[in-house]
């Protein structure tokens, strides 16, 4: 018979994993030494004697990012690279600004689930599940509405309001990563062979050349 302690232990483990996707810390903090030339998973810790309160802070999430780019969005992110105290803590936060009609094109975060809260404006937000269903879960979000994009799922947002929109997102990784589908598939360096893209998307070379030109 299973030990009566087994179930609570398994549940506790499951909850611990739900709190953070990144590995759990083994000490109070491990402020990233961003200049270290030791390559490990994450960053080595700065000498705790040189750690200051500035290592645990980031400013500027009140400042709109510049959305004058072809997609009309801007991400201001406090991750381990911009807030070194996040190293080993498994969280990050970002502000997203959307111009009117701005889109955050389909992308995924390979290392984090995303929690999105709309502060201003109106967004359509959605994600698509994996094969074979590829189900789209899409909704309209207003200020105060929250949605979640499960780790690894391809997701997007579009500003459908008349003015700018703003969202704050939290992610359960110190470095969730971004894979924009268009950039990865049509903008890789060097490019994926045209024959691969033609056969994969079942279109001719002209369509592929046009797509490649968009993501140079
Ligand atoms: C985002 O906004 C910042 C601050 O205005 C700007 O420096 C940066 O170039 C913008 N990024 C993009 C991709 O437009
Ligand atoms: C995927 O689609 C199949 C067939 O419609 C269905 O049986 C299954 O429950 C779906 N899976 C999920 C996770 O929605």
UniProtKB/TrEMBL annotation:
Residues 1-20 form the signal peptide. Its main location: secreted. This is Germin-like protein. SUPFAM superfamilies: RmlC-like cupins. Oxalate binds at residues 109, 114. It comes from Ananas comosus (Pineapple). Belongs to the germin family. GO terms for molecular function: manganese ion binding. Disulfide bonds join 30-45. The keyword RNA-binding does not apply. Pfam families: Cupin_1. It is found in: Secreted, Extracellular space, Apoplast. The keyword GTP-binding does not apply. InterPro entries: Cupin_1, Germin, RmlC-like_jellyroll, RmlC_Cupin_sf. Gene3D superfamilies: Jelly Rolls. GO terms for cellular component: apoplast. Residues 59-209 form the Cupin type-1 domain. The lineage of its organism: Eukaryota, Viridiplantae, Streptophyta, Embryophyta, Tracheophyta. Keywords: Apoplast, Disulfide bond, Manganese, Metal-binding, Secreted, Signal. Mn(2+) binds at residues 107, 109, 114, 155.
């Amino acid at each position: 018979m299973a030990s009566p302690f087994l179930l609570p232990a398994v549940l506790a483990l499951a909850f611990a994993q739900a709190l953070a996707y990144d590995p759990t810390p083994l000490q109070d903090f491990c402020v990233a030494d961003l200049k270290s030339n030791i390559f490990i998973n994450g960053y080595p810790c700065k000498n705790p004697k040189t750690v200051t309160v500035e290592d645990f802070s980031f400013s500027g999430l009140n400042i709109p990012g510049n959305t004058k780019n072809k997609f009309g969005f801007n991400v201001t992110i406090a991750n381990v690279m911009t807030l070194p105290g996040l190293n080993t803590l498994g969280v990050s936060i970002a502000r997203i600004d959307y111009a009117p009609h701005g889109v955050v094109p389909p992308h995924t975060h390979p290392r984090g689930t995303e929690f999105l809260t709309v502060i201003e404006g109106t967004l359509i937000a959605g994600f698509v599940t994996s094969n074979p269903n590829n189900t789209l879960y899409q909704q309209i979000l207003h200020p105060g509405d929250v949605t979640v994009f499960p780790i690894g799922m391809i997701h997007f947002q579009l500003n459908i309001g008349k003015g700018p929109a703003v969202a704050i997102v939290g992610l359960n990784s110190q470095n969730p990563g971004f894979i924009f589908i268009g950039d990865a598939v049509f903008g890789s360096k060097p490019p994926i062979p045209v024959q691969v893209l033609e056969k994969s998307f079942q279109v001719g070379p002209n369509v592929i050349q046009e797509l490649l030109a968009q993501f140079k």
